[in-house]
Amino acid sequence: MIGNSRLHWGKFQADTLVETWDTQHLNQSPLEMGWSWLHQISPVPLFIASVVPEQMQLWQNYPQAEIITLELLPLGGLYPTFGIDRGLAVLGAGNQLGFPILVIDAGTALTLTGVNQNRQLIGGAILPGLGLQFSSLSNRTATLPQVAFPESLPQRWGVNTSEAIASGIIHSMIAGLREFITAWCQEFPHSKISITGGDRIPLMTYLNSQYPKIAALIVDTPEAIFWGMSAMVRDRNLPSLNRVSL
Ligand SMILES: Nc1ncnc2c1ncn2[C@@H]1O[C@H](COP(=O)(O)OP(=O)(O)OP(=O)(O)O)[C@@H](O)[C@H]1O
Ligand SMILES: CC(C)(CO)[C@@H](O)C(=O)NCCC(=O)O
Ligand SMILES: [K+]
């Protein structure tokens, strides 16, 4: 999975996900980097989904790379610019936990994505992720410093700049999530809710402290996107999968 901050890898043996890891974005194509050995030694199928077109371009000539596109997802009601990472995560988490489902992806951008029992997209929301909120404040103001994520929920009323920044971002983030989750549960009372993405652990720590009942509804699904890939690959008709062509 090519995300906005980095690449997320999953290794499958048959249908089983055996290992996951993350690497930086590439600045050359894998062939230029001498990665043809990877294919020669082990010509395993490589499935790629991307929300970063330039990064996808680099894989254009990689043998056996197959692109996962929106049309291949067994979900209804998707709009043309819908993010493939959101689709895979909601498919994977739904397959594992059941539909309806609401997925929170705490990545560079934080997304909420809700799908009903008929696997139709109800809709969602996109906002700057935790890391991006912190970095944009420090990058776009003269004096605000870069603040690291606090280990525990910051006090609401900060008494220095770092505390005030952490409070503002984190308390409004979790209050907002609570609102979205509550609204979703009113419409889909028996829905599963899951969380994935690089910032899910600090986010769950904060939610647990402030809103334990809400936090208790949320299942940790760090591998949701890979479950989605495997569900899609398992169900796919081979000929319908697009070979890489950009
Ligand atoms: N080693 C790491 N490198 C980069 N980000 C990390 C790392 N560990 C945790 N993170 C956190 O992960 C967040 C990014 O999440 P993730 O990696 O899921 O995003 P992404 O690559 O943009 O994926 P997506 O585009 O699918 O959201 C950052 O805000 C950062 O705080
Ligand atoms: C929102 C992100 C950046 C989250 O990774 C990605 O899913 C994306 O680029 N989506 C396209 C816009 C949309 O999903 O409506
Ligand atoms: K973008």
UniProtKB/TrEMBL annotation:
Sequence positions that bind K(+): 105
EC number: 2.7.1.33
GO molecular function annotation: ATP binding; metal ion binding; pantothenate kinase activity
Keyword list, A-Z: ATP-binding, Coenzyme A biosynthesis, Cytoplasm, Kinase, Metal-binding, Nucleotide-binding, Potassium, Transferase
Subcellular localization, as worded in the UniProt entry: Cytoplasm
EC category: transferase
Protein name, as recorded: Type III pantothenate kinase
